[in-house]
## 1
Amino acid sequence: MYPNVSLKIKNHIPKIIYYPEEGLEKTLTFQNESIYEVVVPIAKKLNLINRELIENDPEILAELFDLARQSDELYVTDLPEIEFESLEFDLNKVLNNLLNDIQEEQLSEYEGIDVSQELKDELNKNINADIFASLLEVMYMTLIAKTLVAASDLGIGTIKLDDKGKNARLMEKMAVELEKLEVDMIVDPEDYEIEDIEQIVE
């Protein structure tokens, strides 16, 4: 369906692309910021990776996304506003700034309390997965919101999710947000399992 604006994620790099008609495209974002290179270091900071990683580990993102799906993505409630001066996602900056703010608040909870570092680590261990899930939700909302802004600026009412990573949570969130705004969404069935698409449709 043309014209459309596409959120394309290939080799973990998200781009917003405008397709005025079949065979024509215009890239609207130019950063080559890898979701892998943003998410994996954050997971390491939160001690969520307990094994030695090989370079560009093909399984680790799937494992981390699955962990987030099992955690509380609403744990962090004080979220930053999305900056719309540019369509660039700036995921590394957004997520790491938020993580730093969260960790500073955590440290302040222990001020004046005589507890060992070991106990602090144990207390934090139970909430790090929730923090991680909340950060991923911010990432998804940033990707979706900036794609929506690009479509709105162009007067386009159809958005395509072209995600080679087949992230079901991103598809779910985009479907919900676009439905609220009565924006049409296109998904290539080959990018997702049939049951994933059926769940969204229902």
## 2
Amino acid sequence: MAQHTSKQREKRNPLYSLVDFIKVIVILAILVGFMALIAGRWDWIAGWTFLGAFTVYSLVLFGWLSSIDPGLARERRQDANERNQPYERVIIPMMVMLELALLVVATLDGGRFGWSTVPVWARVIGWMLLAVTGAILPWVFRTNTFASGVGRIQDDREHHVIIGGPYRYVRHPMYAGVIVGFIGLPLSLGSWWALIPGGLLILTFIYRTWQEDRFLTASLPGYVVYAQQTRYRLLPGIW
């Protein structure tokens, strides 16, 4: 079992970076248009504040990751074509649909109809949780150059167990960070109802974590020893 101390020595391809950057811009533009259409208004402060923050964060994270670890950026770019595990063929489309449902419900509730009355203190907690998610993701990417978006053993990149950074506390810190965001997003957008698809998303991530943990235990050398030392998958002291 070894801790990763140096990033894969891969040169950054400016053409790929430009194409990926354009893709990010297009996806963000579609997201803005989608939420604007559902909200039916341009004066929804909570929604546009979130979209602005999310846009800036996504672009900065993309540029930073492409700069410090082109190998990981390439790996995550190819995720959609690397669904090698049977459970992911079901769970990943389900997660995409639930994420879409979360945005739709939150936008209809907080942006158009106002079904919920979320107090300011709860909205502040929501933003704090989103900030936690935003801090965990780059910490994971900085620590683990093998942080793919799918479960696969990256033999082409000398895949090995990572034990530093957030991996000292839980075995799947990226998923733990994303789960926190599924609680924070509905609150920040002012929707109690959006916690329902958010909760379903959390359940799917728990299931995915369990399946991926089984896969790594069976396939990644050193993972069994690591799992014995880092006992918890997502939440220290609980699971």
## 3
Amino acid sequence: MHWEVSPTYDPYQDPGPQEPEETKKAMPEREEADEIQHEDYDRYITAIVCVPQGGGGSYGTVMKRKRGIDGELQGRSNANPILDISVYEVEFDDGSTEAYLANIIAEHIYLQVDGEGYTQYMLNEIVDHKKDGTTVSKEDGIITTKAGRKLPRQTPKGW
């Protein structure tokens, strides 16, 4: 019987992904990256927020940063929402737009979110509700349990 000795090799050392030298120099430092003002990286754009409008609150969508006559972005963004004075255009359901400061938008976003991060919407009223003869009245309504028992529907207090 002929035995062969398995060869031994040096362990492979993976240096990780390599970037070209010019790319490394082109990337801004962390502090510089925070200063970049660009709409593609904006956290407010496409947010739906209830903002003050005409004495009440109206839901609108943050569409874009507002630009001046010279084409430059208005205001200055900041990682701290309280210090963020950038200006945004908010479009409402009726097609109208208004300018709002980012700190106002941020404040109203935080007002809509509960402690677990869920958005809360408010319903003021139901408009144009109609009832026809095909609906079941509260008195005639029943609930069928999983066991098949039929029980009268309990009407919540205040209805």
## 4
Amino acid sequence: MGSSKGYNSKTGRWSYDCDSCGNLGASRVKCPIRYCSTTQLCPSCVTSTGWRKKETHANCYASHERLENERLQFLKENANKWTVVSAWGSWADWVPNGQVGVCAYLGGNPAGRTGEPAYFLVPQDEYADQGRHNFIIDESRHPRFDNDPTELVSKSLVVEVSA
């Protein structure tokens, strides 16, 4: 599944290749329950595969439901912990090399964020090993900034703050 295009000599235009049969003239088709990735199918393959029918995506729905339940359980278990909602790499002026700068909220729930955000530094290797859900901050290991570090303009200031 990709975004491959080819020149259609019949229409004189560039068009998508069908992911199923490879013919030109495909269009992007979304999963009816918005779970699996968008695919490119020509009209005959849309009909023959039943791509737009919800029955075709029964497994998608079960997976979606299971993952949503996992996400809700994760949010419930970590309601009183700092949960990362956004991150910056060392490309940001305020993040030292080998670190990830993160913004976290208590509970991390994107729909119901309350309170003020907190900013932390996390070792890059540790952040890369996070699981399926958001990263949980361990305040004993991850240094916290008193103010919004995105306002800092120099990495030398960050090194002083985290030392």
